[in-house]
Design brief:
Blueprint: H1 3-31, E1 52-53, H2 58-62, E2 67-73, E3 76-84, H3 85-91, E4 107-113, E5 118-122, H4 123-126, E6 136-141, E7 144-145, E8 154-156, E9 170-177
Bound molecules: ligand MTE and molybdenum atom.
Organism: Luteimonas galliterrae
Keywords: Signal
Protein name: Molybdopterin-dependent oxidoreductase
Amino acid sequence: MTTRKYAMRTACLLLVAGLSACAAAGPVLRAAAPSHPEHAGRASEPMSPSPFVVPLDAATLAKLPREPVKASAHGQDLDCEGVALAGLLRATGAVPADPLRGPQLARYLLVTARDGYRAIYSLAELDPSLSDRRVLLVDHCSGKPLDDDDGPLRLIAPGDARPARWVRQVKSITVVAAP
Ligand SMILES: Nc1nc2c(c(=O)[nH]1)N[C@H]1C(S)=C(S)[C@@H](COP(=O)(O)O)O[C@H]1N2
Ligand SMILES: [Mo]
């Protein structure tokens, strides 16, 4: 073998070895891409587990300030009373007391009803530092407890142009981190 041929073969071997090394490094490079948003927050921020079922028992609700809300659905005026969803989430530890940030912004509330109806609200739209929209969990309208068709708990979001998310017969409210 000539010196030149030997040099060429060595160079080729080095090239192949280099490419193999790069191929082997591939998954490592991919792993360095941005991590899942749920893990992108500061380590010091306490996070509730996901899913987190928000307590809706009478004792929990009784501790919260009551708020009136007037709204209109299908031409019918509603004059109701209940608690702010934002206050309920904070009081039960579902969200931190501070303005939402980081991975909290990729979380949402799943609201289910006894008849199978479901709707979601993002945590962000319920945070008073991000939005002035009110969403209330009401238990009385026109001075009376809600009947079984509507209650005993119903959501009312007067900022929504249609009442489609005003879930009647609320069965559960769960905080969920987006997958
Ligand atoms: N549990 C439950 N809540 C629900 C619904 C439903 O089918 N089931 N329909 C929604 C829709 S689409 C509308 S427009 C309003 C209707 O509210 P109303 O029956 O009080 O007018 O309720 C919302 N909440
Ligand atoms: Mo609707």
